[in-house]
């Protein structure tokens, strides 16, 4: 299992509005278009990113086991503890005393669950009834830092 995942949790500071200018236009990755022509107001990131304020937390990703899924070391993730995990969700799971962030797959035929990395250097983690296992929360958004 990925041993270096550090789960530093932060509450989702939603006591204030966080209005950011919003461009209501399709942004193409081709021919440039003047974005200021489409500026329509502001958007509140708290309302966009947080559905359940009492059960939502932010954390910073540490590790590279999901890099091929676009979830990278240093990204900030939004985790909702009130959601029930479904196949294909990315989850923060507690397995045998350690936290990990992986894709969740339920295998009814084998009567187990799988925590799937998206990096060829890591093996999937098989979870059975012998494991101490809990899904701590479901990842709902990833916030990337692109400019160093």
Summarize the structure.
This protein has 148 residues and is mainly beta. The chain contains one helix and ten strands.
Structure commentary:
By secondary structure, the chain is mainly beta. Helix content is 3%, strand content 40%. Strand 7 and strand 8 form a beta hairpin. The two termini are 29 Å apart.
The total of helices stands at: 1
The side-by-side strand order for the widest beta sheet comes to 1-4-5-10-6-7-8-9
Radius of gyration: 18 Å
Q: What class would the helix/strand composition place it in? A: mainly beta
Total beta strand runs: 10
Strand content: 35-45%
N to C succession of SSEs: EEEHEEEEEEE
**Looking at the structure, what is the overall shape?**
globular
Key traits:
eight-stranded antiparallel sheet; single chain; two-stranded antiparallel ribbon; 148 residues; mainly beta
Which SSEs are present, and which pair or pack?
Elements lengths: L8 E3 L7 E5 L15 E6 H5 L6 E5 L15 E5 L9 E6 L2 E10 L4 E5 L8 E3 L5 E11 L5
Antiparallel strand pairs: 1-4, 2-3, 4-5, 5-10, 6-7, 6-10, 7-8, 8-9
